[in-house]
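Continuing the batch. This is chain 6 of the set; chains 1 through 5 are on the previous pages. Same settings as before, nothing changed between runs. Recording input and output for traceability.
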Amino acid sequence: MEEPDLWLIGAISILLVGLGLFLYLRRFKQK
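Output for chain 6:
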């Protein structure tokens, strides 16, 4: 295991991007 935290960083990044996109779409639908 060279980078045991690599999958964790990737998962967090995907979650943050997904959350940001979700909030962006909610704001876009309200307008």
